[in-house]
What we know:
It contains ten helices and twelve strands. The protein has helices at 7-13, 29-41, 59-64, 69-79, 89-92, 110-114, 118-133, 145-157, 190-208, 214-226, and strands at residues 2-4, 18-23, 44-49, 83-85, 137-141, 163-167, 170-171, 231-240, 254-262, 265-274, 279-281, 284-285. Strand 2, helix 2 and strand 3 (44-49) form a beta-alpha-beta unit. Helix 7 (118-133) packs across helix 8 and helix 9 packs antiparallel against helix 10 (214-226).
Amino acid sequence: MKIVSTFRQARDLSQERVGLVPTMGYLHEGHLSLIEAASDGNDTVVVSIFVNPLQFNETTDLDSYPRDIERDASLAHKAGADILFVPDAEYMYPAEPRVTVSVSEVSGGMEGAHRPGHFAGVATVVAKLFAGIQPDSAYFGRKDAQQLAVVRTMGSDLGFPINVHGMPIVREFDGLALSSRNVKIDPALRTSARSLSSGLSLAADAFEAGEMASGVLKRIVGDRLGAEQSVRVEYVEVARSKDAAIVDTIDSEVFLAVAARVGNVRLIDNVHLDPGTGAADRGLRLKEPSILYGGS
Ligand code: AMP
């Protein structure tokens, strides 16, 4: 695996079919599942690691975002990465960007409403990665379901000939969706943090038993979160997977999403609900503690 810091270097080392996995680093099994999927379907796997300042609306969150390039390089290599693209902020943004990409409507609710400017930051950096790396395929997690809709819309509206793959959520053994931010959760609040996934799972059970009303599913999640004093809910919503439009009744593929603060850590999670099959996709669960906590 080669570590590079410019698009030219990444392009010169790429061969045949190229798969891209964009990340902000501090890798965990969720990221590794994307890298493994990319190495199954491509000749060259490029993993980017860039903590993108444009998508952070809180400087404390940006400053405290966990970083460890040596650890990430070893994990990415083992999972099948050929090229690790690690640009610095001056390379990606030599000046205040004059061209930014905003994806209207899809970006409006949920994360977009609670994190102003966040999705313009995401869409801009992903557009730069698409243009600079020129992959054939790119791999994103359903953990960030609205982001996936934003990226798909950006890719098709701007005409990038890139297949965007959405991959299942990987969860810790206790159900908490993996996130690099999980290392910042106070261990005393771990049970509170778990209420996001357990609430979603209860709602997923109700969906599988035939409940199609968003209001009922949202209430199930809200009741579970409401039982935890240290959880401050930002939103619980049901939205169409393809364009993140909020729906009252489930008549197409949707995700039931939640965002909440547990202590001072902001967490998001969702389950994917398909009325065609009647099945809920809760993602995959690790059988042992995550590598986030020091194992390998
Ligand atoms: P991040 O480093 O948080 O920007 O995430 C990079 C990519 O990994 C995004 O496409 C995320 O959706 C994906 N990802 C993050 N957490 C998970 C997870 N628990 N399961 C699957 N994919 C994930």
